[in-house]
Amino acid sequence: MPRLGEDGAPPALPIGTLMVGALALLAGALALLLNAGALTGPINSPTMVALVHTFTLGYVGLIFAGTLQQLPAVMFVTKLAWPWLGYVTTPALLSGSAAVVIGFASGFHPTWLQVGAVVTSLGWALLLAQLLATALRRPPKDAGSQALILAVLFLTFTVVAGFLLASARTTPAVAQVVGYPVRLHLSLGIFGAFLLGIVGSGQKLLSMFALSKGGAQWRVRAAMLLITAALVVESVEAIARVPLGSLALLLLAGGSLMQLLEVAAIYRRRLRKKLEAPIRRYVLAHAFMPLAGLLVLLDQPTAAAAAFLVGFVGLAVSGMLVKISSFLVWTAVFANARSGGVSGGAPLLRDLMRDELEPLTTWALAGGALALCATFMTGQPLLATTSAALLLLGAASQVAQVVHVVGITVLAGRRLGRAAAPVPTPAVSAEEAP
Amino acid sequence: MTETTLTEIVPALPARNVLESLRAVIDPELGLDIVSLGMVYVVTVAGGSVNIEMTLTTPGCPLHASIEADVKHVLGQVPGVDDVSVELVWDPPWTPDAMSDSAKSALGFW
After folding, report:
1. Where do the domains of chain B lie?
2. What is the strand order of the sheet B5-11 is part of?
């Protein structure tokens, strides 16, 4: 049986990585507020591309990476291979992502971009190797675990495709061979990595937190198949330059529909009628999927991408971030406490959170994502500023929650530790004392 | 509701008492005790040694180490208990039917 902090990575690694990911969203939202005008300009401007990569590599990527330091041990029910590897991968992903963002922000600076892309690719390749080595210890048979592995594979492909894109900008020979496959890079990241990552981890985690038996392996397998097929179609289109019409889009819509049906089934058949606020946020995130589909039908691709990425992925990741953080910190502090668990005075997991922050995070992030979609549809500067301000508020509330969860748990652990500590034996006995 | 098997070999204390003591062990995620949740399958008492066969709501539950430690902590305080071992089992798997009526009610299961 896996034990957090024993069979997974040292707890400080995932907790630290998750916190840095939450801070990346805060930094990105602040930068967005300071550059809100970029939202009404060209979508491929240096500022916009830098902001998108702060969100994808910094926020989603780092939280995904932090989760991978513990979740595989739980999902595969085995020990994490090379549990120290996070000491290499987390700094690599953090520095590589920062270099990529700096490269974009400074007007597509080739050196920053290439160095950043190489370091980030290396970090994800190592995480993929760690995940595969863990899977080899006890090959997972469930579809959720397999989807998680596939998602990390696609994420590694995404950053490698990013490296090729950066190289194609400066090296004509590379551009001749690979072209400039931005669309493939986007699809690999948004659908292959993020959607499949949420499909895989979500099935296990949502079922666990909602006490639900509603999940079905076939739906997850169908989602994997449809998304993979879509990415193959897009690869053929990008590399062989064979136009295949809307086939990839239809397949991606099918994969997304499977996830919607899966979450709906888990939610409907849950035992815990009142879900905790972060889990409700995770479920609510899925409302942005049909919205993204509607925006595609209305020929609003940028708004659709914003709905999917910031609305669906952003909220889903946010919900799981808070929930996973509380689990990780609680377990790290109390799993082997001499005083026992709750019977010895440890708090319940639900008591670690500041309740008032949760609706603030949910509605600020959701409102910010909606305003972002509206900005891309209308080009209104006021909507751009509103969106940036709401996202900043949500990101700040989320950081405050995570810091609170970590702080209150550590303090409670110290308090219990002091209470359970044996009375020290005096170095000098009463008779010997003068 | 789970019918816990109670076995006493050269009993120093009734297995029923051991089971009742386990009501002090609370699942930190659900906030309910493990007996009401139907997680305790077998309690075996042999002299001062107690063996608990129990399960969790899902295999790979990240809280298993803390719940296991809590079981040992709680039973370690019961007079007459010298040694506690805990065995996590997955067969039969935990189902909602294992919960007591009060646990179902607390989770809003009705």
Report:
1. 5-95
2. B5-11, B40-47, B49-54, B83-88
Which residues does A44 contact at the CB level (< 8 Å), separation at least 6?
Answer: none
pLDDT for A378 beyond 50 = yes
Cβ–Cβ contact B78 with A under 8 A: no
Task: Say whether A343 and B24 touch across the interface (CB within 8 A).
Answer: yes
In this predicted structure, the answer to whether residue A426 has a pLDDT above a threshold of 80 is no
CA distance A4 to chain B (A): 7
pLDDT of residue A337 exceeding 90, the answer is: no
Tell me which H or E stretch contains A26. Answer: helix A12-34
Question: Mind listing the pLDDT tens digit for each residue in A98-134?
Answer: 999 999 999 999 999 999 999 999 999 999 999 999 9
Domain-embedded: residue A174: no
Q: Does domain B5-95 have CATH number 3.40.390.30?
A: no
**A109-118, A385-394, A395-404: least confidently modelled range:** A109-118
Mean pLDDT, rounded, for A27-35: 97
Answer with the one of A95, A121, A140 that is the final residue of a domain. Answer: A140
Give the tens place of pLDDT for each residue, B40-99: 999 999 888 999 999 988 777 778 888 888 999 899 988 888 899 999 998 888 887 888
Hey, are the CB atoms on A1 and B88 less than 8 Å from each other? Answer: yes
Contact of A224 with chain B, judged by CB distance below 8 Å, is answered with no
Q: How many domains does chain A have?
A: 2
Residue A252 lies in a domain: no
Does residue A190 fall inside a structural domain?
no
Interface of A with B in 261-280 (CB under 8 A): 271-274
Q: Which chain B residues contact residue A346 at CB under 8 A?
A: 28, 66
Nearest to A342 among B26, B58, B60 (CB): B26
B100 touches chain A (CB under 8 A): no
Token look-up 């067969």 returns B91
Nearest-Cα distance to chain B for A209, in Å, is 8
Res B8 pLDDT > 80: no
Establish if A141 touches chain B: CB-CB under 8 angstroms: no
Last residue of a domain, one of A108, A140, A172: A140
Quick one: closest CA in B to A212, which residue?
B96
Cα of first residue to Cα of last residue in chain B, in angstroms, is 15
d(C-alpha A134, C-alpha A136), whole Å: 5
Which residues are CB-neighbours of B74 under 8 A, at least 6 positions away? A340, A343, B21, B22, B24, B25
Q: Which domain holds residue A375?
A: 279-417
Q: List chain A residues with CB under 8 Å of B62.
A: 2, 4, 70, 74, 327, 331
What does pLDDT average to over chain A?
Answer: 90
Question: What pTM value is reported for the model?
Answer: 0.89
CB contact (8 A) between residue B66 and residue A331: yes
Please, is A42 exposed, middle or buried when counting C-beta atoms within 10 Å of its C-beta (0-12, 13-18, 19+)?
exposed
Q: Are the Cβ atoms of A273 and B108 closer than 8 angstroms?
A: yes
- Which H/E stretch holds residue A71? helix A71-76
Collapsed DSSP state (helix, strand, coil) of residue B47? strand
Q: Do the chains contact at A341 and B67, CB–CB below 8 Å?
A: yes
**Is B59 near chain A, with CB under 8 Å?**
yes
A177 in any annotated domain: no
